Every structure is written in C-alpha cells, then in structure tokens.
Amino acid sequence: MKQELAGVSNRISLTCDVWRSISIEGYICLTAHYVDESWKLKSKILSFCAMPPPHSGFELAKKVLSCLEDWGIEKKIFSLTLDNASANDNMQSILKDQLLSRHGLLCDGEFFHIRCSAHVLNLIVQAGLKVVEGAVHKIRETVKWIKWSEGRKDLFKECVIDVGIKYTAGLKMDVSTRWNSTYLMLGSAMKYRRAFPLLGRADRSYKHCRKKSPKKPEKAL
C-alpha cells in the first residue's frame, strides 16, 4: 500500500472523522482518496485508531500529520474534508500551516479545507425538523419504549395484529446526526400509527402517542 501511494502521480484528498463510542472512547478515521493510473477512484483507510482526549485542534492536527508522514504522502495532499465541529476548524488551520511550510499544498492551500456536504445537509434538515419537534420527540420516545424489553415488543406485536396491520418491517430508531434515519423512523411509525392508541390502552405506563381522553364537561355551578 505504501508503494502504491508513493506511485500516485497526482494529488491525494483526505476525509477525516472523530467520534465517541457508546462507552465514551474516542476514535479517529483518516481515509485517502485518489485516482490511480487506470483512472479509477480509490479510497483507502490510512488510520482507524483510538483518539484519547483532549480532542483539541492541536492534538487532531498532530495525529493526522503523523499519519501522513508514516505513509510518506505529506507533500501530496490536495484537500481535507471535515464536518463542522469547532475543533476541526482549528485542526485544519494548524495542519494547513504545517503542510504549507513543507511546500505540500497547491495554491497556498486555498482549496485545502472542504466542509462535509452531508453534515451541512443534516444541520439544515435538523433545523427544519424543529417545526415538528414535539411530534418527532413523541415518536422517538415511543420507539425507545417499545424496544426497551422483549415483553413490550411482544405486546406491541399483539396490538399490531389486533388492528390488522400487515406491515412487518418493524419500527426503526433514528440517530440524531443522520437526518435520513429520522426520515426512516417517521416512515415506519406511520405504518403502525393505528396500533399506538391500542398500546396505550393495553399498558397504562405507555404515555407518548396515546389518544387523549376527551375532557369531561365542567358541571354548571
């Protein structure tokens, strides 16, 4: 792989992401993208490893630069695509200065930093979803409630059968950083919407998408 990267005659673009696992451990993944001699786009993971705190711009830049040096491509970089985390802004600025000092960037690094279009799109959709935030919250909590235990899953299946729903794909849980997962969650919930009121009557601890009982008229004084 190192020989292949050494033989790349054009520039290499990078994508990088940092995240925390459920157990709060930090990870970083750095991927190289380039066109080979046969004009085929190649994507190769250069590093997938633990990223201990702090996740500051300086430490991230240090980690990425070390990886580029290990692969011997620090003078072949064209661009780096990142999401909009504030630490990434600092990281790319520090890394750009380091690469410029080695004459490793074109056009003085004008095209070095690229913001992830998928992340930008997610921010736009999440802002739009605030209009229906209350409804989305109820559906998300409903899915969590049903998936909490096997007993609740079985009870929900009984409600689905009782109301005659034939859809069998099941409810989907979303991830807040992936707008398309919220779309899939809402779509699946719509298929089962007739089962939720029955679930509320079958288990009084379920409170999220139940039909509210009509208020009794106040007695005349």
From TrEMBL:
The keyword Metal-binding applies. GO terms for molecular function: zinc ion binding. It comes from the Eukaryota. It is found in: Nucleus. The keyword Metal-binding applies. InterPro entries: ZnF_BED_domain_contain. GO terms for cellular component: nucleus. Keywords: Metal-binding, Nucleus, Zinc, Zinc-finger. PANTHER family: ZINC FINGER BED DOMAIN-CONTAINING PROTEIN 39, ZINC FINGER BED DOMAIN-CONTAINING PROTEIN 4. This is Ribonuclease H-like superfamily. It comes from Arabidopsis suecica.
